């Protein structure tokens, strides 16, 4: 490409830059760069210009890269140095930024634009040097105490905790890595240290050192090595495993640019840069999935780490996991039972199978094309085929357990496997044996297999008698599983009150049996977990719901069961709660389709009278009073998106009741709702976002969303301003955003940054009165921000004109908000006042406001008039030429009822400007002593 054509692209980039179209500017500058051959001076300019666009987009890493390339061609170019200085400062690399600022000043001491930067950076660098010196002294003292085993236990623990505090600070972590070899010292200490407090704190220090920057993480990895992290993860202490798991996640986050928050996503450029290290770490985790030498807790942590990270498209690791045999390794875990005592058995926890099923589901969801899905399925089929070809009973047991977990994880795969000839028959034969382990495993599989109505009907005919026989077993573990199987078969009609697979009253008897197991006097949580699962099926029946909601002991047992945080508890407890709240997804009933179904003699589902709104409200209040929120918060650790959706549904149902919203906030619901609203299924995110909005409507947002949480709530709430969302969701989101917008400028700026202005503006034009009113009220609070006001008068738009028309709205609340908005706009600048007169009904709007019965509306009206008069003589004349002056004078004569003082003050101020500043009116003769108009 010739230089002339490159210059053309550069000019197009410059035009886009001037009109603040930064993305387009980057695109044009990139075209100019790609067309250059060799390294002419023009190339340095293109890089330098693109760096300016990246800087505006706040992509500071790319700004640095382009500045570096420009400076390689033209060293010490002041503009490139200045832009690099700004980017370095934003990245908190102050010493490097100061270096560039110093260079610019040396080359041109008269450069005024760099002087503020130089002064500010000099202060920062000096302060950092002082802090570093102090930090180094503190560090030396604490290191001497911690790593000397002769010191007292309490003294060492305190010093280690102080080291952790230091590691959380950027300056402290820098000194620790560069000057004290802290990683090696901690690594050596943990080889011999038996004090768990010191051990855990040491691991957490390493994790904090990895949180700050990519460079520090690489330094830690170099000193410690990936195998060491897997070594410390292998522990039977939950506290140690959590610390090591957090540490590994910090490493992945730093190397990929993710944040610890749930919505954090990898940055493609960083992932490509650190691909080798990331792949090594994820490969090591994959290889360790079915390592028989590690603890069950460590295995769970490894699978959770993979589940949390492999779905990111930047990593592309779901397919890698399949290629590296990760599916078979996960199946090995999913096929385990704690009761197995075979040589091939590995250490697991009660949650391992559930966690493995969730991971398999996440991998399958990321198989985006047929070939990948076929490869995934073939690996599962090969695993099952290999086991079935082996005649021993262990293999059949493992196949059955795997099918159970597939039916709980990637359901499509599970259904395709159990649909194969002979599989269901094999499971029924196992259930009919006298071997308790086979009975137990077969029961679990039959429960999972009855997910679809067709299979449930098949099992009712073939397996109901077997399950009834097993329910008579003397082994409670067999009895409870057989009971749950019967519960699931008895509930396959769902919430349809007309379908009763078993005899009348059977569901209540089954529920009573589940209740007895739930309140089991022993400490066996496995039995209680299955009892909760049985209730999760039965509570589709409205009569069972009413019976359970009045049973305080059973509700308390459910809540206490959930508080354990055991991942295998999630389904049973949460589904039961969803059913009690009627928070499950309901099919929309279209009257025309019902009539058509009647005509065609098709079955029409009927809702039970005990599922009327009044009964549902009573159940919600009862659940709230039993502190069910604490149970939901404990269960939110699950990585299963489907389970998270169920939890969101319960939260949203609870938040629909005004009196429960304060309780939700007190018990920690807001923190988890923000996470649920940002990650999971689309329906789950909507449910969580609506729950947040409902809390934000009736509660003071500063109380409901303290600190940064108010800002974190904004994105979820804005996601409800979408055409796919219901009118109620739109309305509630607008109301909550209205409250948040009045908090402070930071909240308003975040709404703008997340694209909220245009979404809210769109709903101002909505036909629905409540929705448009809420949007106008929200805009009234947003215009407290100068940046928002500028959107009303910059460019060619009719925003002010529309606000004027809203002042005439029949809805008093809409008119009140619109007049408040107009009062703020007209008080900002003359241009806003001029735009008022673009409206054809400006006079009618002002007249309606001034003549309104409400003193608040009158006050807004006189403020608008006073603002326009203050703006310019020309605009004041336009008002005086109308009958506005007469209305103002008439308002002055209205008797003061205690609310008129501020109105009269504004009128006097406006008239004074007209008389003394513009001389366009004169006082009446009795006041001025002379005649005049």
What's the overall geometry? globular
Q: Give the distance, in angstroms, between the N- and C-terminal Cα atoms.
A: 74 Å
Runs with pLDDT <50, length 5+? 927-933
- In total, the number of strands is 0
Main pleated-sheet profile: none
Give the structural class.
Answer: mainly alpha
| Average pLDDT taken over every residue | 85
In DSSP terms (H or I, runs of 4 or more residues), the helix count works out at 56
Radius of gyration: 34 Å
Question: DSSP strand (E) fraction?
Answer: under 5%
Helix content: over 70%
Structural features, described:
This protein is mostly helical and 933 residues long. 72% of the residues lie in helices and 0% in strands. The protein contains 56 helices and no strands. Helix 5 (78-90) runs antiparallel to helix 6 (94-107), helix 6 packs antiparallel against helix 7 (115-146) and helix 19 (326-334) runs antiparallel to helix 20. The longest helix has 32 residues, at 115-146. The N and C termini lie far apart (74 Å).
Q: What's the layout of helices and strands?
A:
Layout: H1 3-18, H2 22-34, H3 41-56, H4 60-73, H5 78-90, H6 94-107, H7 115-146, H8 153-168, H9 170-179, H10 182-192, H11 196-209, H12 214-224, H13 226-233, H14 238-256, H15 268-273, H16 275-287, H17 296-309, H18 317-323, H19 326-334, H20 352-365, H21 370-388, H22 393-408, H23 411-418, H24 423-431, H25 436-449, H26 453-471, H27 476-490, H28 506-518, H29 525-538, H30 542-549, H31 552-563, H32 570-581, H33 591-599, H34 613-625, H35 628-635, H36 641-655, H37 658-666, H38 669-678, H39 682-698, H40 701-704, H41 709-712, H42 714-719, H43 727-741, H44 745-753, H45 756-764, H46 769-782, H47 786-793, H48 799-806, H49 812-826, H50 830-836, H51 842-850, H52 855-871, H53 873-881, H54 884-892, H55 901-917, H56 925-928
């Amino acid at each position: 490409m010739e230089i002339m054509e490159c210059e053309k692209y550069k000019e197009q980039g410059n035009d886009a830059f001037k009109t603040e179209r930064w993305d387009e500017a980057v695109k044009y500058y990139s075209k100019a760069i790609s067309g250059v051959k060799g390294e002419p001076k023009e190339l340095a300019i293109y890089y330098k210009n693109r760096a300016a666009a990246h800087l505006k987009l706040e992509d500071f890493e790319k700004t640095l890269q382009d500045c570096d390339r420009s400076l390689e061609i033209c060293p010490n170019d002041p503009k490139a140095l200045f832009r690099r200085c700004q980017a370095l400062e934003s990245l908190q690399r102050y010493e490097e930024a100061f270096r560039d600022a110093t260079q610019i000043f040396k080359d041109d001491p008269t450069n005024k634009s760099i002087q503020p930067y130089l002064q500010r950076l000099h202060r920062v660098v000096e302060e950092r040097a002082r802090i570093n010196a102090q930090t180094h002294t503190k560090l030396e003292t604490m290191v001497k105490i911690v790593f000397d085993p002769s010191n007292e236990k309490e003294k060492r623990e305190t010093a280690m905790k102080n080291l952790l505090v230091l590691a959380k600070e950027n300056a402290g972590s820098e000194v620790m890595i560069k000057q004290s070899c802290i990683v090696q010292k901690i690594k050596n200490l943990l080889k011999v240290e038996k004090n768990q407090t010191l051990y855990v704190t040491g691991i957490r220090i390493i994790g904090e050192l990895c949180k700050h920057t990519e460079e520090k993480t690489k330094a830690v990895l170099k000193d410690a090595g990936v195998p060491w992290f897997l070594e410390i993860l292998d522990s039977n202490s939950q506290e140690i495993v959590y610390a090591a798991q957090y540490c590994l996640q910090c490493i992945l986050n730093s190397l990929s640019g993710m944040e610890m928050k749930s919505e954090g996503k990898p940055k493609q450029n960083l992932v490509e840069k650190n691909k080798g290290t990331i792949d090594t770490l994820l490969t090591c985790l994959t290889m360790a999935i079915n390592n028989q030498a590690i603890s069950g807790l460590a295995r769970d942590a490894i699978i959770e780490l993979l589940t949390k990270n492999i779905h990111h498209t930047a990593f592309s690791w779901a397919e890698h996991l399949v290629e590296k045999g990760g599916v078979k390794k996960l199946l090995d875990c999913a096929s385990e039972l704690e009761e197995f005592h075979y040589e091939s058995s590995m250490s697991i926890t009660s949650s391992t199978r559930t966690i493995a099923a969730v991971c398999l589901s996440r991998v399958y969801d990321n198989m985006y094309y047929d070939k990948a899905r076929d490869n995934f399925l073939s690996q599962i089929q090969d695993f099952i085929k290999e086991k079935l070809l082996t005649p021993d009973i262990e293999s059949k047991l493992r196949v059955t357990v795997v099918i159970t977990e597939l039916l709980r994880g990637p359901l499509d795969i599970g259904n395709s496997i159990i649909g194969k000839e002979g599989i269901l028959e094999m499971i029924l034969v196992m259930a009919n044996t006298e071997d308790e382990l086979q009975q137990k495993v077969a029961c679990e599989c039959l429960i999972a297999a009855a997910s679809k109505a067709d299979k449930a009907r098949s099992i009712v005919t073939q397996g109901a008698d077997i399950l009834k026989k097993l329910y008579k077993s003397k082994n409670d573990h067999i009895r409870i599983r057989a009971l749950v199987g019967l519960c699931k078969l008895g509930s396959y009609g769902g919430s349809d009150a007309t379908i009763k697979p078993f005899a009348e009253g059977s569901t209540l008897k089954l529920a009573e049996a589940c209740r007895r197991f739930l309140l089991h006097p022993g400490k066996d949580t496995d039995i209680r977990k299955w009892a909760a699962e049985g209730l999760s099926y039965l509570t589709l029946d409205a009569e069972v719901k009413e019976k359970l909601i009045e049973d305080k002991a059973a509700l308390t047992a459910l809540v206490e069961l959930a508080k354990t945080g055991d991942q295998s508890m999630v389904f049973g407890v949460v589904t039961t709660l969803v059913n009690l709240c009627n928070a499950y997804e309901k099919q929309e009933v279209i009257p025309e389709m019902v009539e058509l179904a009647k005509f065609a003699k098709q079955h029409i589902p009927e809702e039970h009278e005990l599922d009327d709104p009044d009964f549902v409200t009573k159940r919600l209040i009862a659940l709230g009073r039993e502190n069910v929120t604490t149970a939901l918060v404990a269960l939110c650790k699950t990585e299963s998106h489907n389970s998270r959706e169920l939890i969101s549904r319960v939260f949203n149902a609870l938040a629909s009741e005004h009196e429960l919203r304060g309780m939700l906030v007190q018990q920690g619901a807001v923190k988890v709702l923000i996470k649920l609203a940002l990650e999971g299924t689309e329906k789950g995110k909507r449910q969580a976002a609506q729950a947040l909005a409902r809390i934000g409507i009736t509660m003071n947002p500063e109380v409901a969303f303290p600190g940064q949480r108010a800002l974190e709530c904004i994105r979820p709430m804005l996601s409800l301003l979408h055409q796919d969302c219901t009118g109620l969701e739109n309305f509630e989101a607008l109301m909550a955003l209205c409250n948040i917008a009045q908090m402070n400028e930071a909240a308003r700026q975040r709404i703008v940054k997340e694209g909220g202005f245009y979404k809210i503006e769109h709903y101002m034009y909505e036909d629905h009165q409540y929705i448009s009113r809420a949007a106008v009220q929200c805009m009234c609070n947003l215009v407290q921000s100068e940046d928002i006001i500028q959107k009303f008068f910059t460019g060619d738009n009719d925003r002010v004109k529309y606000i004027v028309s809203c002042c005439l709205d029949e809805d008093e609340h809409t008119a009140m908000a619109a007049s408040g908005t107009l009062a703020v706009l007209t008080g900002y600048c003359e241009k806003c006042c001029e735009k008022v007169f673009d409206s054809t009904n400006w006079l009618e709007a002002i007249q309606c406001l001034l003549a309104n019965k409400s003193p608040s509306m009158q006050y807004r009206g006189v403020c608008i008039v006073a603002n326009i008069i203050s703006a310019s003589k020309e605009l004041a004349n336009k008002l005086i030429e109308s009958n506005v002056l007469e209305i103002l004078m008439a308002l002055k004569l209205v008797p003061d009822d205690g609310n008129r003082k501020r109105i009269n003050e504004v009128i006097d101020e406006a008239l004074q400007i007209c008389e003394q500043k513009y001389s366009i009116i004169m006082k009446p003769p009795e006041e001025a002593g002379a005649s005049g108009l």
